[in-house]
Amino acid sequence: MNRLSVRQLLESKGLSGSYGGIHLSAAGHAGSLNTLHVVFDENVGFSAFLKMFDYDPRAKLSEREYAATGTWTLRAPMLALSTPDPALAFPFGTRLRPQLLIRNAAAKPIDASLRFTWRSGGASGKAAGPQLRLLPYETRRIDVAALQDGTTLPKDANWAAVILTSNALPDELMAVAVSYDQELKYGAQTPFSDQLAFHWAGSQWQYDPHHDSVITVGNGGTKPTTAALTIVYNQGAQKYELEQALQPDEQMWIDVGKLIREHVVDKNGKTLPQDLTFGSYDIRDLGNKGIGALFEGKIMYDTTYGHVTYGCGVCCAYQPLSFGGIPSESPFREPPAMV
């Protein structure tokens, strides 16, 4: 293991600037490398992870573009906008500064475009974002808060799914979405991903006086589909089932605490127990098999420390080869890649 300080690297080479990209390569056995990028501020007690992406220059668009649009597409499902959702339990008056860092990792210019699917307490909609042309190896910062001017995005919108499309090949264009207040005390992250699936196996959710969980499921395909969300509890013995028809880019939003507090009935007329505090969940695309068209996300907050953490599910797909010619379902794995 080797630890590097970005600050020391910049100072030693006489480089300036407040943000940029990092490229790590290896002559061989690149798939054996793992990286972790941490940013922190000791003065305010802030720290966060910045996602590192695998890059394989041999990757083909047909191998990684699951919606079959012929366009490299990345999605960030849960960008918290300037006015936080009350479900996050941030102090009254907290203002976030949502922004995107978009990097061209290729030695050629890349054209890209942004679009948003936003939602507030009582409305939702779609909005076109800026058109971008990134120079070779350029990193661009997009101030999403400035787009909440009532023209591009509503001023009172709480969330946005960010869809980034481009003429790039897989992983030539990558992005990170962050949203924190000016003091770096409150905020949330949502990673960009290219993955779609017909089945997602979710991790743990929590709900109690200090925790809540919000889950989203989106349609990343080009045709309408129906998403089925199953909340599993009581050691897997009981289920709570919801279904929702989704147009392309449309999302299903589930506040687990709200379901419990307000005795919301599922498709079978069942409610969740009032003393329920944790469980897991499962997502299925009822309109597609094979790769599928769903993307997902989940956040959990902790009012004790003010943390909002992101957690995602494991996507599953059919293997092309299996026993007896019957496709078998297993976790999807991307091919080994250069870091």
Notes on the protein architecture:
The chain is mainly beta and 339 residues long. The protein has 4 helices and 21 strands. The chain has helices spanning 6-13, 61-64, 144-147, 256-261; strands at residues 37-41, 46-50, 72-80, 97-104, 110-119, 124-134, 139-143, 159-166, 173-180, 187-191, 199-201, 205-206, 211-219, 225-233, 238-246, 251-255, 278-285, 294-302, 307-310, 314-318, 329-331. Strands 11, 12, 14, 15, 17, 20 and 21 form a 7-stranded antiparallel β-sheet that branches. A 4-stranded antiparallel β-sheet has the order 3-8-5-6, with no helix packed on it. The chain is globular, with a radius of gyration of 20 Å. Residues 319-339 have low confidence and may be disordered.
CATH topology of the largest domain: Hypothetical Protein Tm1070, Chain: A
Distance between the termini: 15 Å
- Poorly predicted ranges: 319-339
Q: Helix proportion of residues, in percent?
A: under 10%
Give the rounded overall mean pLDDT.
88
CATH level-four homologous superfamily name of the largest domain: TM1070-like
Q: Tell me the number of structural domains.
A: 2
Please, how many helices? 4
Number of strands: 21
The CATH architecture of the largest domain can be given as Sandwich
User: What is the alpha-carbon Rg in Å?
Assistant: 20 Å
